[in-house]
Records
---
Amino acid sequence: MNSSRTGLRRAALAVLSAALVATAAGTAQAHPGKVGPGKGHHHGKGHPKPAASLRDLADRRHVLIGTAVDTTALAEDGAYRAATAREFSSVTAENVMKWEVVEPERGRYDWSAADELVRFARAHGQQVRGHTLLWHNQLPAWLTEGVADGSIDAKELRKILREHITAEVKHFKGKIYQWDVVNEVFEEDGSLRDSIWLQQLGPSYIADAFRWAHRADPGAKLFMNDYNVEGVNAKSTAYYELAKKLRAQGVPVQGMGVQAHLDIQYGFPTDLAANLARFDRLGLRTAITEADVRMFTPSDPAKLARQASDYRGLLAACLATKGCTSFTVWGFTDKYSWVPGTFEGEGEANILDADFRHKPAYEALREELAKRH
Ligand code: XIL
């Protein structure tokens, strides 16, 4: 793990220097949130010192702080764009690297939206997490329909998967530091999900996916990724056992991604750090990949305090784990979030409110990152 930390440190330094350039280029003055304790105080020759952003603080902890990016908002909303640039050192495409977007018709690739995001990241000194190569959701209709009507048989499907993974990873070669290669492949009881991949190809599709991805970009770190794997439970244990087995076979599985879509109506997974630690001991990197903490709306101060405490707990567990090299939130403002559209009656799951004001959760992340350790 030492070498991974050293590698990250180097990457973090590169990010830091690029961030300074981005800040100098004017992203900081566009910061839409409140400025914090430094506001109004003049330092040195009369310039107010902006409060440190999440990424400034994360750089000092040698961890990447990321967000999922809604590329429509990025194109249309200046406040969203400024906050994305200012606060984060890593970005994940919320949707535009998914199969249905990048290959809407068989053999016709459309990388335009994803390329735009990669360009944005580069301009602001940010790293890019790749999400996701293989999933059971957001597949193109030509693929699901072809499997359903029998026009795509198992042999053909395996070839299609190989070509998809190879084309996508090659397209972004050298630009992605971590790929979610397989997403949500287990059920809650630890059995493999009954997806078209398992039905058609059998369990070996997982090892294949990692091998194909590694061949296409040996420099990217390859992850499994799922929800409800924060604590030690049947599902996370299935991942642990799978990782152990695949690594023993020489399959290039290098990381475990914990999505961390939490809800304040449930208890916080207090064994998260212990869970991350066991993957760490296997020699895997770990990452919090999609953190958000939802609640039934409207919020109140007690709910927001509980939300802040959950965000803090997620980040603290990551910071306590040597190989946990990135912490990503699934969107950062309540203005754009998948939660209200997915969980009835729930929302306000992010760290900034819909007007980009800092919520207690934002301050909690800042405090946690600023702690001396
Ligand atoms: C979600 C996006 O946020 C939505 O915009 C989209 O409609 C559906 O997918 N787990 C994942 C993510 O791995 O890709 C999902 O993202 C959220 C759950």
Note: The longest strand covers residues 285-296.
---
Amino acid sequence: MSCCDRGQLRSVDAMLDELLNKAIPVKDSLPILVVDALGKILAEDVISGIDVPPHDNSAMDGYAVNLNDCQTDSAVTLPISQRIPAGSVPQALQPGTAARIFTGATIPENATAVIMQEDCSEQDGQVTLPAGIKLDQNIRPQGQDIKTSSTILQKGHHVRAQDMGLMASIGIAEVKAYRPLKVAILSTGDELIEPGQSISEGQIFNSNRYTLQGFLKGLGFEILDLGIVEDTLDATLKALTNAAESADVIITSGGVSVGEEDHVKAAIDQLGELNLWKLAIKPGKPFAYGKVANTPIMGLPGNPGAVFVTFCILARPFLLKSQGAASVKAHSFKLPIGFSLKKPGKRREYLRTRINYENGEAFIENHPNQSSGVLSSASWADGLAIITENTAPQKGELVEFSPFSELFGNS
Ligand code: AMP
Ligand code: MG
């Protein structure tokens, strides 16, 4: 058990650094089929045992020739000595002849160029080739894509569609990936009921559970969903103990502010180690990090807009690092804003925004409702604009924008 940091606002950067320092990557790996590898994190370097392509091959349907049999300044006619479709094994090119060849077919020994069929004319077993043929033209060299013994993907790489294709291209059907992280989620709040139930006065539907389910599914984690936990210390202690027994990481929503109905902090404090920060982030000021027994826990705020932002900015990189990913920070780029901030704030603000266009130029459009309790602006948006602490950028100024494709994916 340790004491909590209840002091001044902590910066997002300092918080993120600390979280990433504390994240311990999962160690266990398992063999998976390359066909099932999408979204997984590789637990080994993938090294090629072959050259890709394995032979010089033709980039065109056309005719393979030796440059010695061609003229640089005039057309030449040669007899056709063989036909080489893709997948066949050619014979060496006979001197003074051309070979009919097709895209992807192995270049015969002695051939030094391929001329595309559109530039040739074939008649009675002979082909007339144009002038100006160049050495190696339309020949894709052996190993052009991948060389034997080269590392094609590194440990910690997040597998995307093209990586599945790349692994297949070197002939492997299986690869080692880290086992999926098991993440427990629980939603605190006596006011919560589940969608599908009828709502009574004073109740609201549990939306955070669904946002978190969506995030975690998108990242490929296993989810232990402990549902709604009532606002008592006892229930919170039980739920957290249960979660810590079988999950790698616990994420809670709500119950981390200072009210007497907020029991998450006290429960973490009793069961392990609590570090609570008032973060310089908007939305999402209260954020708890700690351990229940030995299991890391992140206590997100209750407000749905704040859950959305704190998950993207803090929980996601922590989870990715814990999953063994080598690269966890989301990219952002600068775009002009189509609005003006009224005054500088002490907290870094993540605005739910989207890209719009005026006269073909992209700009960031702001949603008018940035309340931490509001989720519709997150659904409207396609990224977060990042307003640095103590700045109030005006219309036309450049501001960092991180698209949701960066914040939701695990690349
Ligand atoms: P809390 O931090 O528990 O005081 O919650 C802050 C605000 O978020 C309150 O208005 C809660 O009703 C709301 N809230 C908490 N949990 C959820 C949830 N799972 N789904 C929707 N709203 C929630
Ligand atoms: Mg609550």
Note: The chain has eight helices and 26 strands.
